[in-house]
Every structure is written in C-alpha cells, then in structure tokens.
Design goal:
It is found in: Periplasm. The chain has 14 helices and ten strands. By secondary structure, the protein is of the alpha/beta class. Helix 6 runs parallel beside helix 14.
C-alpha cells in the first residue's frame, strides 16, 4: 500500500508540475505581452504634466517608465553607450544634430504620425534637422534676463552689457551652461553664439571673467526657486524657467535683450535602439493633440510649437511677448549649432576656467 501511495504521489506530482509549468508559461507570455505595452521615456526632470502620463496610459494601455536626465551631454552619453534602451527622449537642437551624426536616431515614419499640421511652419525645418527627418518640436523658447522689477528697472537690463554694471555686484545668478553664458557674452561683443574663432572665444572668456564680481552663484534648475524666493535680483535663464518663477513671485519679470539671444528647441526623437517604437509613435501622436499640448504648456510654462494648442491658451498667455516674442525679437535670435567635439570642449574648458575664479 505504501508503495502504491508513493507511486500515486509521483503521478500526482508530475501532473501538478505539468499544470504548474503550463500556468507559468501562460503567465510569462502574459508578462511579456504586458512588457510590450510600455513606453520607456527619457526626459528632462519635471518636464511634462504627470496627469498627461496617466491619461496616456488610460487611453492607450501603454505603461510609462519615466526616467530623467539633467543635461544634453548626460543623455547623449547614456544613449550612445546603449546599455539601456529608451523609446523616446528629448534632446535640444544642437544635440539632435549630434545624435544624427552619431547614427543614434531612427528616421521618423510620417505615415505613422498624426497632427503634424498643427505645428507652426516657422518652427519646423530647422538647420539642426532639415525637414524634421528625425525630430519633432516639443517646446521652444529663449534665453534672457529674469529680474525683480521692484529692485531692477526694465531699462537697466535691456542689454546684455548692462549686466557688467558695478551696481549689480553680487546680485546675478547664472544658469550653469557653457553655451548659454559664453553665448550671451559673445552677443554682447557683437559676435555669434556659434562662434568658432579662438580669438573671439578667448576675448569672451576674458570679458566673462570680469563679470564674476556681480555673480552671486552659478546654479542649475534651482535658479527659478532662488529667484522666486528673492535670493537674487537678476537671473540669466530660459523663458520657461522664468515663467515658473514669475508664477510664484509677481515681482519678477523677464525680457530678451534687444541685441538678440538664443532661440532653443527641445524635441521628441526615437533612438535607433528603441524596443517599443509603436509606443513612441502613440505618445507623439497623443502629445500632438491640441488639448494635450495646451495642458502641458500651461503646466510647464514653456512656449508650445503647436499652433492649435496655442489657440487654446488664455489670452493673457497668447499676448505675452516675453514668452511668445514679436517678429522683431525673433529676427534677432540664433539657434545653436552643433559645434563638434573640438569646439564643444573649448567652450566647456573656457566656462570651467571662468567658474574656478569664483571665490
């Protein structure tokens, strides 16, 4: 009887094992199918309305794995290394061109895109990606001067050269960006923000070093928080960051100096090694919808390239020339070009040497 029970137990165990294996395989298949319904999204920090990610998942079934970076360089390096696969990321203009040259991007299939006619034609077909073969604009804006209008008059910061006035000693916050800070200095010397002259860059570095007595700190994303809290009277930053600070402190104002500045673009791109390209296209199409783009613009505070979305924004936003500049201002803006490794390193080295003079 004992031998019979043992044999029966073995038979039962085998049956249970087979049932368990079948259950495991079904679950594994379900998990694999579930894993295919994901979007691995690599974006700047706090650069999308979280409610839109929830809405996208609800409408499409795609779960969003959201990871962030804090610089174009960090994002580029991670994508190039290829250890982690992302389906969608958001490089700035010159980095799009850099990624194209490094063969890191998937050419866009326009047959899978909807809503492209919602975009302002002026904001398409930029030099960093002719005909938008690889990228679609996400937000755009300017580099300018954020200031406390209770302390600083508009006319006293109408030009980049005004920043060197000794009355602003220890009052200026600079965004921690070589291209932007050396760029504004180059413009103050009637040079291009894309200058590739050793003499011009050396002159800009020298002039920038003379600004240091007026510099309170060189900071990153926290600049908007410090300005909102009244920690400094002037900040060199981006229009969207300025908008967020102004929303928290009505004493702040923003303007682009009359001699010109940078017009930047952040853009959706699909990395060549993306595993969930259907999800990437679904998300781009989702964000192309005017109501979603408008909601995102109101949350982030940056200028939308989607004309239909712009038309849904409050009149006070549409008419705000600080963030949707006049044609006169637009005509004086420059888009960053990819300087290449040699000149990027020269700019970075010059900026690092400048920062080292801070005491």
């Amino acid at each position: 009887m004992r031998k019979l029970l043992t044999g029966g137990a073995i038979i039962i165990a085998v049956i249970l094992a087979l049932v368990g294996l079948k259950t495991y395989l079904v679950q594994a298949q379900d998990n694999q199918q579930h894993s295919d319904k994901v979007l691995d999204f690599y974006n700047w920090g706090d650069y999308i309305d979280p409610d839109l990610l929830v809405k996208f998942t609800k409408e499409t079934g795609y779960q969003v794995n959201y990871n962030t970076f804090d610089s174009n360089e960090a994002m580029f390096t991670k994508i190039k290394q290829g250890g982690t696969s992302y389906d969608l990321t958001v490089p700035s203009d010159y980095t799009v061109n850099k990624m194209i040259q490094a063969n890191l991007l998937e050419p866009l299939d326009y047959s899978r895109l909807v809503g492209m006619d919602n975009y302002y034609p002026r904001l398409l077909n930029q030099t960093f990606d002719p005909h938008n073969r690889y990228s679609i604009p996400y937000f755009w804006g300017t580099l300018g001067i954020l200031y406390n209008k209770k302390v600083v008059s508009t006319s006293s910061v109408a030009h980049w050269n005004n920043l060197w006035d000794s009355k602003f000693k220890d009052q200026i916050l600079l965004v921690d960006s070589a291209r932007d800070i050396l760029g504004m200095t180059l413009i103050s010397q009637d040079k291009s923000m894309n200058d590739r002259s050793t003499a011009d860059l050396a002159a800009a570095q020298g002039k920038l070093t003379s600004l240091m007595p007026n510099v309170k700190a060189i900071v990153a994303d926290e600049l908007k928080m410090y300005m909102a809290q009244g920690e400094a009277n002037i900040g060199i930053t981006y229009s969207g960051e300025a908008a967020q600070a102004m929303a928290k402190n009505p004493d702040l104002a923003y303007q682009v100096p009359s001699e010109g500045s940078n017009e930047w673009f952040d853009n959706f791109v699909i990395p060549r090694n993306a595993r969930h390209k259907d999800a990437a296209y679904a998300f781009i199409n989702f964000m192309n919808q005017p109501q979603n783009a408008a909601q995102n613009a109101k949350y982030i505070g940056y200028a939308t390239p989607n004309q239909r979305a712009y038309e849904l924004l409050p009149q006070s936003v549409q008419n705000n020339r600080q963030f949707y500049p006049s044609q006169v201002t637009l005509d004086k803006l420059e888009v960053y070009q990819n300087l290449g490794q040699k000149w990027t390193e020269k700019y970075n080295d010059a900026f690092l040497e400048f920062k080292m003079t801070k005491r």
